[in-house]
Design a protein that fits this description.
The complex is a heterodimer of chains A (296) and B (478).
Chain A: E1 28-32, E2 38-43, H1 47-66, H2 69-85, H3 87-98, H4 102-122, H5 126-130, E3 132-133, E4 140-148, E5 151-155, H6 163-174, E6 178-182, H7 189-198, E7 208-211, H8 215-224, E8 230-232, H9 238-248, E9 254-256, H10 271-274, E10 277-285
Chain B: E1 22-23, E2 25-27, E3 30-32, E4 39-43, E5 50-55, H1 59-78, H2 81-97, H3 99-110, H4 114-135, E6 153-157, H5 163-176, E7 180-184, H6 191-203, E8 210-212, H7 217-225, E9 231-235, H8 238-248, E10 254-258, E11 264-267, H9 273-285, E12 297-301, H10 305-316, H11 337-352, E13 356-358, E14 374-377, H12 384-387, E15 394-400, H13 403-411, E16 418-422, H14 426-435, E17 440-443, E18 462-463
Parallel strand pairs in B: 1-5, 6-7, 6-9, 7-8, 9-10, 11-12, 11-16, 12-15, 14-15, 16-17
Antiparallel strand pairs in B: 2-3, 4-5, 10-18, 13-14
Helix pairs in contact in B: 2-4, 2-6, 3-4, 4-5, 9-10
Classes of the chains: A alpha/beta (296), B alpha/beta (478).
GO molecular function, one term (chain B): oxidoreductase activity, acting on the aldehyde or oxo group of donors, NAD or NADP as acceptor
Family (chain B): Belongs to the aldehyde dehydrogenase family.
Pfam family, one (chain B): Aldedh
Chain lengths: 296, 478
């Protein structure tokens, strides 16, 4: 069609600290669809990009973990709203990335949107489910509450480029953690595009940082990073997972080992929420109201 | 300050304990020698008297213990929870019955005051078994799914500071959830675990459900690395914890770690000084400071620094150090020559780095391992005594001006196990507690423990929780 308008390609960039930088290394790599057709050049992130992302995630942690659970729920829900509005874009990207028909890609995107809604509802409930008062044998008030672990490095699943990604990122940030996410190596484009939605969903910059490139190259410095508190190895193969778990021991990161997932669209339990929570228990004497011991 | 009146010695009788000259490994319900016949001695830290000779388990012995536990697992995990519960209730009751004997034994082998083993360790040990006994037939209600399953064989390695209490923290939840265990007590305090083996016999616990392998770090390493262990639980130093985390990397072994700490005890200017002083003293001198959650950094608001230090020094001058079996003793012996050397080296370093050292006038016994209660003032955050876990009766005093500064200093450590807050202002307690990155926060109290209350650290103090409903998770396949 000679009268066809020449389309405008998108330059895919990283999402770090609420901004869209290129890799500091200046490197890119070619991303193709399942048939080998060129889709885009994605940033090939370096160790320095990983470290910059950790700085951004740490900077965002105080405000995000200190936000009310209600507020975090509103923002996660807002992400679902923004995705819904750009649904067609993600359907096309997922179809290209994973070699799916449009209808199958739609199911993936719909499930991903619904996943944000599921976790939006969890933000202000998880503390009641996993925390609570403890009936200690003494005159003490004693309360256990979950708190976010901190900065979590997330190796997104390699195969499920969008639903898998959302399924591992949403539970991490729902509870107040911040994340440095490594997109699927082969299919990073839906993840990089997600940054555009996160940037317009009232999610503070730095809460989610998305890197693309070689998973092993970016994950190694994250696993060894002293200011990363936990790592989700969903996107690592067996050999890489072992290597990263060993590196993670250096500052005793919480490690979520890779588990086989047949179907990312199945309703998740609470495991991905609780994997990155700490329990804090606060004691205080209850005192006494005098000899009668009664306040009635 | 001269004491108001002298105390007559009031030693608890050690006749209540019958320590055998030697003990074997407890494997598959029997005491047996190590395959290579190796033994080691355990001494009383307060007198250096040899208490007994204990078998040293090698790899072959660990393998035998794991096999026994594996064999026992099938039946034990298939028992109705209500039956497992009854075994644990029996154990809890027998511990209560034998608690004076066990308290004296623990004091002999560990060196801590009888006042502590009698009033803290032993009651908590029994309570812990009693608490988890009740969970055994209620696991479906614990929030881990309708029918949560045990993991299998648990390899557990425990420290010497609370030998029997740490055993209880490990074994009670493991058995309640249907696991079987191989437990390695610390090299310097093996006896109470071996007495516990006898309690298992009295309770009629099926053979192989609990196995005790004594030995040093090599025995522990063999247990953790054993390919047929499904769960590793460790309480001890952060350095060893990291090594264990590396060892289990790439396996399916579930891991929980309770490691070191450098707890901040924060005292605001409106705190009730006398109560705070009691809390500070208990926080760092309980068990000679050999406590992972000790309040080893005192953060005092600048305006009350002098007043608080005066009170604290006055109080320290009244502490009684000496025979751990004496019922009036506040400060017992350091657990081992090795630990004493470490405390001594770190305290010397504190002095060399320019911190000001103070101890009350205090006569140390001529035999045994002793260290006087010690304060360091003029300490900055850069000082080694403010950063490293000393695991001894040494308190570093720092100051702050604002709550924000207190929080920043408290959190300025790779550890995150415990913290204390002393203030009469409720909203300040909650605000500060909220910002502290520590697993246990004691406000207007310190060093309180309870089986229902989850315990465990943030950051490099480890992961996982022991105690309470939370403590079940470490032993369930969830």
């Amino acid at each position: 069609m000679s009268d066809a308008r020449l389309s405008v390609f998108k330059t895919y960039k990283l999402y770090v600290g609420g901004k869209f930088p290129r890799s500091e290394s200046g490197r890119v790599y070619e991303v193709t669809d399942s048939k080998g057709k060129w889709l885009a050049n994605a940033p090939l992130s370096s160790r320095k990009d990983a470290r910059d992302a950790v700085v951004a995630a740490r900077k965002a942690f105080g405000a995000w973990s200190g936000a009310t659970a209600y507020n975090r729920g509103q923002i996660l829900y807002r992400i679902a709203e923004m995705l819904e509005g750009r649904r067609d874009q993600y359907v096309a990207e997922v179809a290209d990335a994973e070699g799916l028909s449009k209808s199958k890609a739609s199911l993936q995107v719909d499930a991903a949107i619904d996943r944000w809604v599921w976790y939006a509802g969890w933000t202000d409930k998880i503390a009641q489910v996993v925390g609570g008062g403890n009936p200690v044998a003494g005159p003490f008030f004693n309360l256990s509450s979950p708190e976010p672990t901190g900065v979590v490095a997330v190796l997104a699943p390699q195969e499920s480029s969008f639903l898998g990604l959302v399924s591992v990122v949403a539970p991490v940030i729902a509870t107040g953690n911040t994340a440095v996410v490594i997109a699927s190596e082969k299919s990073p484009l839906p993840a990089l595009s997600l940054g555009e939605v996160l940037a317009t969903s009232d999610l503070p910059g730095g809460v989610v940082n998305v890197l693309s490139g070689r998973t092993a190259e970016i994950a190694a410095p994250l696993a060894a990073h002293q200011d990363v508190n936990a790592i989700d190895l969903a996107g690592a193969d067996e050999a890489l997972a072992k290597e990263l778990e060993i590196a993670a021991a250096d500052n005793l990161k919480r490690v979520l080992r890779p588990q086989p997932v047949d179907d990312w669209s199945a309703t998740p339990g609470t495991e991905r929420l609780t994997a990155f929570l700490e329990t804090k228990t606060v004691w205080h004497p209850t005192g006494s109201l005098g000899a009668s011991g009664s306040s009635y | 300050m001269a004491p108001a009146f002298e105390y007559a010695p009031a030693p608890e009788s050690r006749a209540i304990v019958d320590i055998a000259p030697s003990y074997g490994l407890f494997i598959d319900g029997e005491f047996t020698e190590a395959a290579d016949g190796k033994v080691f001695k355990t001494v009383s830290p307060s007198t250096e008297e040899v208490l007994s000779e204990v078998a040293e388990a090698g790899e072959a012995d660990v393998d035998r213990a794991v096999k026994a536990a594996r064999k026992a697992f099938e039946k034990w995990s298939a028992l109705p929870g209500s039956e497992r519960a009854k075994y644990l209730f029996r154990i809890a009751r027998i511990i209560q019955e034998r608690s004076r004997e066990l308290a004296v034994l623990e004091t002999l082998d560990n060196g801590k005051p009888i006042k502590e083993t009698r009033d803290a360790d032993l009651p908590l040990v029994a309570a812990h078994f009693f608490y988890y006994a009740g969970w055994a037939d209620k696991l479906g209600h614990a929030g881990f799914g309708a029918n949560p399953q045990p993991l299998g064989v648990a390899g557990q390695v425990i420290p010497w500071n609370f030998p029997l209490l740490m055993l209880a923290w490990k074994i009670a939840p493991a058995l309640a959830t249907g696991n079987t265990v191989v437990l390695k007590p610390a090299e310097t305090t093996p006896l109470s675990a071996l007495f516990f083996a006898d309690i298992c016999r009295q309770a009629g616990l099926p053979k192989g459900v609990v196995n005790i392998v004594t030995g040093d770090g090599r025995t522990g390493a063999a247990l953790i690395a054993h390919p047929d262990v499904n769960k590793v639980a460790f309480t001890g130093s952060t350095a060893v914890g990291k090594e264990i985390a590396r060892t289990v990397a790439g396996t399916r072994k579930k891991l929980t770690l309770e490691l070191g700490g450098k707890g901040a005890n924060i005292v605001f200017d409106d705190a009730p000084i006398d109560q705070a002083v009691e809390g500070i003293v208990g926080g760092i001198f309980f068990n000679q400071g050999q406590v992972c959650c000790a309040g080893s950094r005192l953060l005092v608001q600048e305006s009350i620094h002098d007043e608080l230090l005066d009170s604290l020094k006055r109080r320290l001058s009244t502490l009684r150090l000496g025979d751990p079996l004496d019922k009036n003793t506040d400060i017992g012996a350091i657990n081992s020559a090795e630990q004493l050397a470490r405390i001594t080296a770190l305290a010397d370093q504190g002095e060399a780095e320019g911190a000001e050292r103070w101890s009350p006038a205090c006569e140390l016994p001529s035999t045994g391992y002793w260290f006087a209660p010690t304060l360091f003032t003029n300490v900055t955050q850069a000082h080694t005594v403010a950063r490293d876990e000393i695991f001894g009766p040494v308190l570093s005093v720092l100051t702050f001006r604002t709550p924000d500064e207190a929080v920043a200093k408290a959190n300025n450590t790779p550890y995150g196990l415990s913290a204390g807050i002393w203030t009469e202002k409720g909203s300040r307690i909650l605000a500060v507690a909220n910002k502290l990155r520590a697993g246990v926060v004691w406000s207007n109290t310190f060093n309180k423990f309870d089986p229902t209350s989850p315990f465990g650290g943030y950051k490099e103090s480890g992961f996982g929780r022991e105690g309470g409903r939370h403590g079940l998770e470490a032993y369930l396949d969830v």
